[in-house]
Amino acid sequence: MKVPESQVAVLKAASANDAQTIEELAEEAGLKPETTTGAVFELEDEGLLSVEERIDESVSLTGEGKEYAENGLPEIELYEAALAAGGDENSVEMGRAIGQSGLGGPQVNIALSNYARKGYGSIDGGEIVADPDADPENDAEANALAALASGKPVEDADTLDQLESRGLVERTEATVRSVTLTDDGVTALMEGVEAAETVGQLTPEMLTTGEWRDVEFAEYNVSADAERIDGGKVHILRQTANRVKDVLVGMGFEEMDGPHADADFWINDCLFMPQDHPARTHWDRFALSNPTEIDDLPEELVEKVRRAHLDGIGEDSDGYHSPWDEEFARAIALRGHTTSLSMRYLSGNAVGELEPPQRFFSVEKVYRNDTLDPTHLLEFFQIEGWVMAEDLSVRDLMGTFEEFYEQFGITDIQFKPHYNPYTEPSFELFGRHPETNELIEIGNSGMFRPEVLEPLGVECDVMAWGLALERLLMLMYGFEDIRDVHGTLCDLELLRDVEVIH
Ligand code: PHE
Q1: Where are the alpha helices (DSSP H) in 347-491?
Q2: Which residues take part in binding L-phenylalanine (predicted)?
Q3: Is the pLDDT of residue 496 over 90?
Q4: How far is CA 82 from CA 121, 169, 429, in A?
Q5: What is the DSSP string of 208-241?
Q6: Cβ(420) – ligand 1 distance below 6 Å
């Protein structure tokens, strides 16, 4: 009997022992596991091998699980601190117990949310009561973590469920196949099996020489287990940016586009930002050294902007009465906001004069010389937008934000009056972080001042905003440090696993 070479090796390997796994067979036969799997299925079809399948579950500790296996579960730490500090009443002020436990950051919340559930006592009006009869030595979760850490199995499914829902263990299932030689297989081996040459790939030579007629082709095995491959994918920030674009297009907006490095004229001067404004100094600004300035500023607009800065734009308006220097306005820097694009568009310099009503947006990078921390990077994506129409009011602005954020499941936006040199009134926007429950700033907005609009030649109202894409992402996915998604400290698992829902 002639079978492909790999099948001969697998048959011989299978005759060594009953019920071998594919891995054992592969080792014995000196073949790759995927080749072995293919051969096994072929031989099973021929009736020479029998294959039994079972699902094996393996449980492993996550990083956090390992940490608690080593240092103790936060709720036990808290219990022990509360017990030690509680005196005869077994009751102690919460801050003191937490202080003594040495817990910090998110672990405090973890400890508090598991404390009562596991019968360590109660938390009431800022006091922690420790039940003297609780028994941390018999904590099923702690003991399961310890067992897993030392490589022992844990059978208690309820405890495993609990640990899994706390993100402390991961359960994975794998199909294990055990292979045994059938009676026909034994006979075939006794009668002698020979290796036939199999060919994995058809070549042009085989076709021209006609050799293809004489060879045996290997078959595709579509049920073979394949290795998990983490290929490249679109970053969640990009995915979310694309979704934001879709949402805004759905709300009737058109996209703006323009230079990342631009003249201060577009970034600041058009926005009625005085030339001695603190944000315009080198502390916040990334200047360009080559080229240092822009040549083609629209002359007429430069003159109107200069006048607005000096004297304001009419009876009810006043300018800064300080020198306005065109050279200074020509200097190039990385844009600190994409409001520079709004200026280019509103001035008619990007796509020609615009008649109201109009709606435009961009979702683009901006650059700021900030100090890096969990909520600040040197660059971020700004969701810029504006609506030009007659008789706009703050209600239109708020309604637009509510409609926009609702599409991302965010429904409790809060507004706080604010100051911008270029809008009046102005509002900062806040949203509640799903994990820390804190209000975080998510954007800035307002109605452009006449001192901005008149030089641009806009005769109706314009409401506008700049929202931070990264902050939107924080509200959507609950991560607390922007560096989890950006840069060398990023959380690769998070980036691999999070899918943006469209
Ligand atoms: N440029 C502002 C910022 O970067 C956002 C903004 C745009 C505010 C337009 C009002 C109007 O914070």
Answers
A1: 394-406, 450-456, 469-477
A2: 339, 382-384, 422, 448
A3: no
A4: 10, 27, 40
A5: HHTGGGTSEEPPP-TTS-----------HHHHHH
A6: yes
Q: Which of 334, 339, 424, 449, when mutated, tests ligand 1's pocket best, judged by the most ligand atoms within 8 Å of its CB?
A: 339
- What's the residue count for the chain? 502
- Are residues 49 and 182 in contact, defined by beta-carbon separation less than 8 angstroms? yes
Residue 424 marked ligand-binding: yes
Q: Is the CB of 340 under 6 A from ligand 1?
A: no
Cα gap 101→77, rounded to integer Å:
6
Locate the domains of the chain by residue range: 2-57+197-217, 63-169, 237-497
Check whether 382 is labelled as a binding-site residue: yes
Domain spanning 237-497: which CATH class is it, in words? Answer: alpha beta
DSSP one-letter code for 391: T
> CATH classification of 2-57+197-217, choosing from 1.10.1670.10, 2.40.280.10, 1.10.10.10, 3.30.930.10?
1.10.10.10
Using most ligand atoms within 8 A of CB, pick from 335, 456, 465, 471 the residue to mutate for ligand 1.
465
Model confidence pLDDT, tens digit, residues 156-202: 999 999 999 999 999 988 888 899 999 999 998 888 887 776 788 88
Each residue's pLDDT tens digit, 102-125: 898 889 989 998 999 999 999 887
pLDDT tens string 342-382 = 999 999 999 999 999 999 999 999 999 888 888 888 899 99
